[in-house]
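Hi there,

I know you've been waiting on this one. I reran it after we fixed the sequence typo, so this is the corrected version. Both the input and the resulting structure follow.
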Amino acid sequence: MPAFQYTIKDAKGARTEGVIKASTMDEAVDKLSKEGSTIITIKSASEGAFKGKLSLFDKLMLTFYKWKTGVSLKTIVFFTRQLSTMISAGLTIEKSIQDLEKEEKNKKFKRVLHKLSDDIKKGFSLSEAMEQHPGVFQPLFVSLVKAGEVSGTLHTILSQLADYYEKMEDTRTKVYSAMAYPIFIVIFLILVAWGMFVYIIPKFAEVYSNFNADLPGPTLLAINISNWIRSNIILTIGIVIASILGLFVVSLTDRGRYIIDTVILKIPVIGSLMTNSIMSKFARTFSILMTAGVPIMEVLELSENVVQNAVVEAAIRRSRIMVKEGYSVAGAFRKTGAFPSTLLQLTATGEETGDMDKLLGKAADFYEKLVDSVIERLTSLIEPLLIVLMAGVVGTLVVVVYLPVFDLGQAMSQGLK
């Protein structure tokens, strides 16, 4: 007989999670309702926390699909905020989405809204209609909408979702802004090096060849590299493109992604920035899901999908297994060794007091402030370091190219004496 995972509130208002066996979901709802409980969420126990892994091909196809159909987070935030306001004002979901469709300027999202409207007309719930668009609506979004539908607080959930995504966007923007300058400098240095090897060094090599003199080792090496690049420009470009694509494919594999994310977290300053950003996102996600009454196993699964770091994802996955075996949430987190002490303390206190959602919300605020602090330090530190890096790379290339000139000048001066 199928099993259904549920979250309910009893007559005293206490929240309870569990699993009930029934032939259909309607029968499970009837059983729980007869006990005098208020159903918050109910779903098939086969769904959720322990799904099969996607193959590499599936991941590639999913990535391409999300790229093809996805819309910006700002568009989702605006839609969520508007939908919440319209529903709270008394408009039906179908009417609200139709009105938003008329005003939508983004063609991709306009098509999504039209499809949502059609599906709702056919009898689908909003969450069921949104599930048909995984490139636009994340599992977290769909699960919270489903929780809002069941509990009758959809407009409140949508408002909280809009706040949540706005904070996620702010944090992401800060992190991207901090990383943009270093990435620009690295790309600039690559282009400078390319220009030196393709255009500048060959001109000097032609001049030096007229002297028939022995060239210093570093200069000879630079000339040989330049000759190889110029003779194999298409191959060189192909190697660069293949390397980028190879790194992308490796990042889709479980092992490759884990190694890349481990290296990122160990980079000085950058690693601290990424850790604080991940903890902020994780705590904020956990908090809003707990507030919405989502079952703890699904909270852990959805939080795992949101953090976007293989190291932390693996830790959350191990935590899910331990919680299922009877560990407390804080105890499971502590066992993994991947979570900072502040988060562990607030989680443990939240479990004891029953205010885990509020305390994890405070944890998210704390880590957001740490992100701001690290970005300030990074901004003040990164500029002089990048200037030194630029001077080192460009200066080294210039010195290597001019070494024969220095030797020639020295030889001439000795000859004059």
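Quick highlight: Residues 3-44 form a domain with the Ubiquitin-like (UB roll) fold (CATH 3.10.20).

Best,
R. S.
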